[in-house]
Amino acid sequence: MAVLTRYETVIGIEVHAQLRTSSKMFCSCPTGAAAGEPDEPNTRVCPVCLGLPGTLPVINRRAVELVILTGLALECHVETDAVRFERKNYFYPDLPKGYQISQYALPLCSGGRLSVPVPSEGTEVLVDITRAHLEEDTARLQHGGRDHSLVDFNRAGVPLMEIVTEPDLRSPAQARAYGEALRDILRHIGASDGDMETGSMRIEGNVSLRPMGAADLGTKVEVKNLNSFRSLERAMEFEVARHAEALGRGEQLTQETRGWDEGKGRTVSQRSKEEANDYRYFPEPDLPPLRPAAEWVARLRAGMPELPVARRTRYRQSLGLSAYDAAVLTADVELAEYFDAVVAEGVAPKPAANWVTGEFSRLLNARAADGLRASGVALRPAGLAELIAEVESGAVSTTTAKTVLARTFHAGESPRAIIEAEELGGLSDTRAIGEAVSEVLANHPAQVAEYRSGKTQIYGFLVGQVMRHTAGRADGRLVDEELRRQLDGEQ
Ligand code: ADP
Ligand code: MG
Ligand code: ZN
Question: Which residue's alpha carbon is at the smallest distance from atom 15 of ligand 1?
């Protein structure tokens, strides 16, 4: 009988993230359509990003800054010596020059690390970062059935950062947690939108198995086409099972690139893996070596925004939020900034977190497909703070407040103004309630006499009359107090 071998999962991750610059990597074409403009294919192009002969690239300073910021956030060494751009040569219709300008031998950032909490395993893994380098994106191909494909060069030359880890992850859940932690960082420092769905962040998972305790790495498979963190985790799980089965049968795995088929929930072989020398990398002769000044790097380090880990710790320790709320808020830096602004208006952290992660997020997510982010919501943090204050003081019920939020969310007018204009607020004015009670008692002498004779069941009827008289707006506790005072008090 065969001895059952136990295997260890080994995963390394490569991430490509589009950098948040306004212009492309080596020319001045815009990276996105202007607000309100239609996004037509092949409108953001010029001789440089179309690869026409005789053009010269110019390095985008902001793109370099964003990679350095990322490197610093990942505790990398930032190269201040001569970083060369290199040409990665291959032919494909999405690559107009026939080569991609990238960095190879000496990346801008290298040797970093990221500590990643893995809640599902109750652990935290330390992931070594091999490198973070700068390159340019390719055009987008659109395959139109059997007989043709279309190409849109708007994406050609958009600044792209590649971040590669060492093979330090030991489970699909860890791989996913790493991806999410990295996305949070990229969003916090404003390096990238980090959207898997729109392709501004793309992940490749490299996975292999080896017998427990073995020192050498097994044959790896690279999986592409992952458009969510869930797909990454599922694809890695699929591969782990496939490898274990093959190895269990004594088979050799082929080093290859596979694509994830989301619908079928499995990976499919795409091509056997090319070697680096297939690309004939060589120094880009049209660009000078890049030498980031140490003072520049120091300035970027000094201006580093608060990172997700620090923000989560602040939310938990200084503001007393739950781990869940802290995680939800920091997964979307704009939501976190919105929340911070609501708290800055004087709202207590817990109700602020409840509203921002609750009803506010629900309304936001309903419009997420249109690209709405917290910063674009018409109701500004001061407005939400106003509304929460009305709820907290008992002036309006939570139900009323949700209605008011839904109305002001896209329109942006003052919730308090609406509450006052439409008298949505509860009646908490003792004098007004006193008057309502007096009037009800005066109008129902028989019931009052009944109550005073000891038949106190009639009390509920009187409460109902007062509520009706105030159109249901009176604060129940005050009505009760006032009714008892007038019924039981001086006669
Ligand atoms: P390639 O040249 O094929 O792109 P690299 O050595 O650059 O391979 O590694 C790419 C990614 O794959 C890195 O994240 C690395 O950590 C990971 N990796 C390398 N070898 C293995 C392996 N045997 N198992 C799992 N991941 C691996
Ligand atoms: Mg690779
Ligand atoms: Zn251009």
Answer: 12
Torsions phi, psi of 72, nearest 5? -65, -40
Are 186 and 202 within 8 A, CB to CB? no
Closest CA to 72 of 102, 109, 21: 109
Q: Best of 130, 165, 206 to mutate for ligand 1, by most ligand atoms within 8 A of CB?
A: 206
User: How many CA atoms within 13 Å lie on the side-chain side of 150?
Assistant: 7
- Reference 258, options 247, 270, 272; nearest CA is 270
Q: Which amino acid is at 182?
A: L
> pTM, whole model, 2 decimals?
0.82
Are 162 and 133 in contact by the 8 Å Cβ rule? The answer is yes
CATH no. for 430-487? 1.10.10.410
Sequence spans of domains, the chain: 2-295, 306-421, 430-487
Provide CB contacts within 8 A for 307, sequence distance 6+.
73, 185, 188, 189
159 C-alpha vs ligand 1 centroid, how far in Å? 23
Structure tokens at 469: 């008289």
The DSSP 8-state label assigned to residue 277 in this structure reads G
Taking the CA atoms of the chain, what radius of gyration do you get in angstroms? Answer: 31
Structure token digits, residue 321 = 């939020």
Q: Which two tokens stand for residue 229?
A: 């963190």
Pocket of ligand 1 (CB under 6 A): 10-14, 164-167, 206-208, 217-218, 220, 273, 276
- CA–CA distance, 469 with 183 (Å, rounded to integer): 56
One digit per residue, pLDDT tens: the chain, 491 residues?
455 679 999 999 999 999 999 999 999 999 998 888 889 999 999 999 999 999 999 999 999 999 999 999 999 999 998 999 999 999 999 999 999 999 999 999 999 999 999 988 989 999 999 999 999 999 999 988 788 999 999 999 999 999 999 999 999 999 999 999 999 999 999 999 999 989 999 999 999 999 999 999 999 999 999 999 999 999 999 999 999 999 999 999 999 999 999 999 999 999 776 666 789 999 999 999 999 999 999 999 999 999 999 999 999 999 999 999 999 999 889 999 999 999 999 999 999 999 999 999 999 999 988 878 999 999 999 999 999 999 888 788 888 899 999 999 999 999 999 888 877 766 666 777 888 899 999 999 999 999 999 898 899 999 988 888 877 777 778 888 889 999 987 55
* Structure tokens given for 475: 């604060």
- Determine which helix (DSSP H) or strand (DSSP E) holds 335, and give its type and residue range: helix 333-344
Strands 256-261 and 221-226: parallel
Distance 151 CA to ligand 2 centre (A): 24
DSSP 8-state secondary structure symbol assigned to residue 278: G
